[in-house]
Amino acid sequence: MGRGFRNMHLIASSSPAMLTALQRAYQQHKPIVVTLWSPHWAFTKYKLKYLSDPQHVFGQSG
Questions:
Q1: What are the sequence ranges of the domains in the chain?
Q2: Percent helix, strand, coil in the chain (nearest 5)?
């Protein structure tokens, strides 16, 4: 998987639950990966970054 994502677990949940997990992880300075659309208000509240998608799992842009 790369990027040091070992021991990460996929958890299916609602958007509110995902955002609560994001807030908790952010406050505790813990890594978390979430799926957000763009634009999304969370990008202005938290210092987030996009991960590269060289295999275009989420489609191609442009």
A1: 16-45
A2: 25, 0, 75
